[in-house]
Amino acid sequence: MLKPKFINILLYLFVKYMAFALILAFQDERFKLLVINDAQNGHDLFLNSFHYLVYVLVFIFILILFFSLPIYFSLKVKRAIYFMPLIIIILVAEYFIYTYLASPAHLMNGVYNEILSLIFLFLFFFKHIGTIFKSKSHS
Questions:
Q1: DSSP class of residue 27?
Q2: Of 20, 65, 72, 132, which residue has the fewest beta carbons closer than 10 angstroms?
Q3: Minimal CA–CA distance to 6: which of 123, 122, 125?
Q4: Using one digit for the tens of pLDDT, what is the confidence trace for 8-36?
C-alpha cells in the first residue's frame, strides 16, 4: 500500500500507537477511572480528556522517536534473509522496552502491542514486504 518512506513510517507508528492507546484506554476501564470518574462537570471532563490525550501523545512521540529509524532501515533491506531477523529483533526490543519500562505490571500489553505492530506493518507495507520475499535474491 505505502512505500517505505520515512514519513510513511512515522504515519504507521502513529496510527499503530494510537490504536494501541485506544485499546488500553478501555482495557480495565482506564479511561473511566482516569477521566470520567474524576470529573465533576463538563469542564472537568474536557480537561481530564485533554490531559489524558497529552499524556498519550507524549508517550507515543517518545516511542516513535525510538523506533522510527530501525523500522525505516529494516524496510530498506532488499533480502528476506536479513529483513526477517531485523524485524524480529525490532519487535522483541519493542516488547521489552514497552513492557518493562511502561507497563511492568501488565505483561500482556506488550503482546497486544506486538500483535498490532505486525497487523499495521502488513496493512501499511504489504506490497513492499511482498517484493522483499519475491525478489530473486531473497535467500
A1: G
A2: 65
A3: 125
A4: 999 999 999 999 999 988 887 777 877 77
Assign 138 a pLDDT band (cuts: 50, 70, 90): very low
The amino acid at residue 19 is A
Show Cβ contacts of residue 35 under 8 Å, excluding neighbours closer than 6 positions: 45, 48, 49, 52
For the record, the C-alpha cell of 90 comes out as 525490532
d(CA 102, CA 17): 13
Interatomic CA distance for residues 2 and 15, integer angstroms: 14
- Residue 13 · residue 64 · CB < 8 Å: yes
Backbone angles phi, psi at 89, to 5 degrees: -60, -40
Task: Report the distance separating Cα 118 and Cα 16, nearest Å.
Answer: 10
Q: Which residues lie closer than 8 Å to 133 by C-beta, 6 or more apart?
A: 80
The span from the CA of 138 to the CA of 46, in Å, is 52
Answer whether 116's CB lies under 8 Å from 24's CB. no
17, 64 contact by CB (below 8 A): yes
The whole-angstrom separation of Cα 5 and Cα 91 is 19
